[in-house]
Specification:
Length: 990
């Protein structure tokens, strides 16, 4: 099968069903229940007969069966309106799409109110979404026709919403258009479509990126109307019409954060303010973004004029060194963020991962930025058009164009198919091989292996072209300078020129710092052998630091690191032999001083970074357990055992933290890895302390002990600074309560002493610090209760005395160390508690009261307090816990320790609308991504005004935002949406 085939749309006049050219692979033996056949059998006979008549065409049945099996979103659209499906299968797709758009525009013009406008646009989107998916899945349209169709729907929706609002304003006398039927003409409001919408390349579940400007000196506003409040209100109304979720869903999610300084500016910005910003502060990524900008709605003439005025910012007339340095910075930022990650299949992000769509776009945009000022023919928006012109202008070879075009089309189809599954803006393949296999079937392959072969080949081709982008480039001709004397300092013009060439913006300061390294009194260099090794390493070090995201800051961070380093001969040697690590270490030092301090105290942590496995798959629980066992197996004493445990924990934290900063693991992978490390350590400590305690006090007949993880360890959502919330349960033969050791203890006293010994093993400070802080307040009766609880008293307490908030906490309870039999008994008790019938109103009130109490104690106004802020992570956790407590009696499959998995379960079981689930899942992912970084890099509350640029960059990248200001705006918008959902589900009940 050819996944970049030209499509089968040339059968003009034929029905869509007759045009199908390919279909998902239906592996009958793997499908438990043929969903499509079942649905078809339940249809009204007349509808069923019409569908059956259309299924005689090749591929038609397999396409609909594949949608039923692999795409919950598309199958929901199919089931919602059988006549719509029949209409689409019978239509000529291009003509139907055009008619659908035209009919919706006409109906919007006649709509009596905003609610009707919203309904009309959502119904148009739903029908268009199913039509476009059928054309994509069935190979009817080539992928770029699919992207163009999606863009047409978006552009028409924006225009219709805006036109409706402007007509309303004209009716109120606030706008005085020359033509009331076209109120946008001359109004002065400019809507620019950015990114893929601007280029006509929208993906299937894409947000739409818009920037809204207005010209206050050229409007049709009534004389007494202030332009900015008016246009801000109209812009907010447009976004509301398009993205507010109603019974009919939504049209498009609207992202207005690409505007100048979005965290501190209104959603509509005056023309002069915008031009002033771009002239004074505009950054490279904003230049690149403007390549695809297109006036899509509002005052078309003013929009084109605005783009013409912005053009000098985007298109520089001369190919100068500064422009090339900017381009190098962009490339370096992408490489540094993802570190040394390799192409892969499971979990690979086809947009921003190695060899992905972003690298193809960057390949084209970079060369457009460099040469577009002098070569206007390069100023095109679509990526494939840019590749074509680059080839015809001899900037790249025809072979490169053809290979990248094929790869781009293939990867865009992968991206679309991923998003069709649940209408989510995802770009990452599943982490699990079995789920990838199902995805491969949906994509038309007969196996994961055949899909993986094609995917890896295309990713490898892209990566090869991308890495060659500036190979050998030397714009100033200074790369062949003779050996540089780094001791010369800022007085040597050749050294300054060399540092400037490498990309340092303050070469004199860098030169002085390097001279200090070579001549100053650093403790680490008091060893002559270390100093000599460092002198040899300096040229490589400077080259490596120059590859950091901010080279000048990297030098400062490395200087601070050297000042703290006490012994470092081996570390210096390792860095000298592994130059690629220098930029990665510079990032760690610049963004996460906590990790830098760990490395300075214990240089041996660097060993993990040069392990070939470091940038591979994260070790699973079994591999971590094996490593931990190897670490402690020959410890000569209990104290040495505790030291080795701490060193293992710190090395794991350092390596996982470095992976987070390099962007080579997701927040979910990091959370799981932190939890696996903690769980392995808990299990090891549990076993050793039990053996040592038994050696002193013996054992009690029939004794069992279990450690239950609660909180973040229980849900496997840990960060670098998470405490361990634990409960210890025990059981024994009550007829024989005395232990059989020399220093015998009885029953509850035995287990209380054992628990205290266990806590001490974690919290005692040794030469390597504390292992974990332990919090046992979630045990029955909290601080007032005993530190260890018998299984009987635990069961009785949970059944008869526990408050609702304690049962909320119990939804995350997970046994992490116990015998299999004792584990099963505990899990049975927990499940019985969670699945009992509850009054939804009472439970909702309890949850809402608990949330209000936390807000009163912790505050909820700091939006960077991602846990406790209004609309923060606590809101999402409480929603998940509320849904479990209320619905687990009838739908026990909702239960899970993971908040995100609970949301998935709730949506699948029909107790949480898919639209709300998507909001909450996306918010949870954002909060997890940012929280992992903040817990790693910040020891106290995060304050943007004092945060370093390195940290802000890492956070923006983790939040998939072009800069920190955009991230700030996204966080605020997300919290507003989450709080709205929380109020609707929990706080407005009863």
């Amino acid at each position: 099968m050819n996944h970049s085939a030209p499509g089968n749309a040339d059968k003009h006049g034929e029905s869509l069903a007759a045009c199908f050219a390919e279909a998902p692979h239906i592996a009958v033996s793997t499908i438990e229940e043929p969903r499509f056949a079942t649905w078809l059998a339940e249809l009204e006979p007349a509808h069923s007969a019409r569908v059956e008549a259309l299924l005689i065409h090749p591929f038609a049945r397999d396409i609909l069966a594949g949608i039923a099996e692999f795409s919950s979103y598309l199958f929901d659209l199919v089931r919602a309106d059988p006549l719509r499906l029949i209409r689409l299968l019978e239509c000529e797709p291009d003509a139907h799409l055009a008619a659908l758009i035209a009919e919706a525009r006409g109906a919007v013009l006649a709509a009596p109110d905003e609610a009707e406008v919203m309904r009309l646009l959502r119904r148009m989107k739903a029908e268009a979404a199913l039509l476009i998916a059928l054309c994509d899945v069935g190979g009817v349209w080539p992928v770029m026709r699919v992207t163009a169709a999606l863009t047409d729907i978006a552009v028409s929706s924006v225009q219709a919403a805006l036109q409706y609002l402007l007509r309303q304003e004209a009716t109120r006398g606030k706008l005085m258009p020359p033509d009331p039927e076209a109120p946008e003409v001359g109004c002065g409001l400019i809507v620019l479509a950015m990114g893929k919408m601007g280029a006509g390349e929208l993906n299937y579940s894409s947000d739409i990126d818009l920037i809204v400007f207005f010209d206050p000196d050229a409007t049709t506003l009534a004389p007494d109307i202030e332009p900015q409040p008016f246009f801000v209100r109209v812009t907010q109304g447009m976004a509301r019409i398009l993205q507010q979720r109603t019974y009919d869903g939504y049209v498009f999610r609207v992202d207005l954060r690409l505007r100048p300084d979005p965290s501190s500016t209104q959603v509509a910005i005056s023309r002069d303010a915008a031009l002033n910003y771009y002239e004074r502060e505009g950054r490279t990524w904003e230049r690149a973004a403007m390549i695809k900008a297109r006036a899509c709605a509002g005052d078309a003439r003013a929009g084109e004029a605005m783009l013409a005025e912005i053009a000098p910012f985007v298109w520089r007339k001369h190919l100068d060194f500064a422009a090339l340095a900017d381009v190098h910075d962009m490339k370096r930022q992408m490489q540094t963020y993802r570190g040394q990650s390799e192409v892969s299949v499971e979990g690979h992000n086809v947009k921003v991962g190695r060899g992905g769509i972003r690298e193809i776009e960057f390949f084209a945009q970079t060369q457009q930025l460099i040469a577009g000022g002098r070569h206007p023919e390069l100023r095109v928006r679509p990526t494939l058009a840019a590749l074509n012109i680059l080839a015809s202008s001899n900037w790249i070879t025809p072979a490169a164009r053809d290979e990248l075009t094929t790869a781009y089309e293939f990867l865009r189809r992968v991206e679309h198919r991923l998003q069709m599954i649940a209408d989510e803006q995802t770009h990452a393949l599943p982490e699990d091989k079995e789920v990838v296999e199902r995805f491969a079937w949906f994509f038309g392959y007969d196996s994961r292996e055949s899909f993986a072969h094609d995917l890896l080949r295309q990713l490898g081709i892209v990566q090869g072209h991308y890495e060659k982008l500036f190979e050998g480039d030397d714009p100033t001709g200074t790369a062949s300078l003779p050996a540089i004397d780094y001791r010369a300092g800022p007085d040597d013009p050749r050294l300054l020129q060399h540092l400037t060439t490498l990309g340092f913006k303050k070469p004199a300061a860098v030169a002085q710092t390097v001279r200090d390294w070579l001549t100053g009194d650093y403790r680490v260099f008091r060893n002559e052998q270390t100093r000599n090794a460092f002198v040899e390493f300096v040229p490589a070090l400077i080259d490596g630091l120059a590859r950091a995201e901010e080279p000048d800051r990297a030098v400062v961070a490395f200087d601070q690191f050297l000042q703290a380093l006490q012994r470092g001969g081996r570390l210096i040697t390792l860095l000298g032999q592994n130059r690629d690590l220098v930029a990665l270490v510079a990032r760690v030092l610049g963004a996460a001083p906590r990790l830098g301090e760990m490395l300075a105290r214990q240089p041996q942590l660097m060993d993990g970074l040069i392990d070939p496995r470091f940038f591979g798959a994260m070790p699973d629980k079994r591999e971590l357990s094996a490593r931990l066992a190897t670490t402690v197996h020959d410890a000569g004493s209990y104290e040495e055992f505790l030291d080795r445990l701490r060193l293992f924990g710190q090395e794991s934290l350092f390596l996982i933290g470095t992976r987070i900063l390099s962007g080579t693991v997701s927040a979910q992978q990091a959370s799981t890895a932190f939890a696996d490390v903690a769980e392995g350590i808990v299990h090891t400590v549990h076993g050793l302390v039990a053996d040592r305690f038994a050696a002193q006090h013996g054992r009690i007949k029939g004794q069992e002990t279990a450690i239950i993880a609660m909180g973040r360890l229980g849900s496997r959502e840990m960060t670098a600074s998470s405490d361990l919330d634990l409960i210890l349960l025990y059981d024994f033969d009550s007829d024989n309560p005395d232990s059989d050791g020399e220093r015998s203890l009885q029953g509850a006293h035995y287990f209380a002493r054992f628990t205290q010994r266990l806590i001490s093993a974690f919290t005692t400070r040794t030469n390597y610090g504390v292992l974990y802080e332990i919090d046992m307040r979630l045990r029955p009766s909290g601080r007032a209760g005993p530190v260890a609880s018998s299984l009987v008293s635990f069961a009785d307490y949970q059944a008869n005395e526990a408050w609702t908030w304690e049962h909320m906490a119990l939804t995350r309870a997970r046994v992490v160390s116990a015998s299999p039999e004792f584990t099963a008994r505990i899990e049975s008790i927990i499940r019985e508690v969670l699945t009992r019938r509850r009054d939804p109103s009472v439970t909702a009130n309890d949850v809402a009261d608990m949330r209000r109490a936390i807000a009163q104690e912790k505050g909820e106004t700091d939006y960077w307090d991602l846990k406790y802020a209004s609309g923060g992570m606590v809101d999402i956790d409480f929603i998940a816990q509320y849904l479990q407590l209320v619905h687990a009696h009838d739908k026990p499959d909702i239960l899970d320790v993971s908040t995100v998995q609970v949301l998935d379960n709730a949506a699948r079981l029909g107790v949480l609308p898919h639209s709300e689930a998507e909001i909450l899942r996306a918010a949870a992912r954002l909060y997890h991504d940012l929280t992992q970084i903040l817990r790693l890099c910040v020891s106290d509350r995060f304050k943007p005004e004092t945060a370093g640029t390195d940290l802000q960059r890492v956070m923006a990248r983790a939040g998939d935002a072009p800069d920190f200001s955009s991230l700030e705006a996204r966080v605020k918008e997300t919290q507003s949406e989450v709080r709205r959902v929380f109020k609707a589900l929990v706080d407005n009940r009863g």
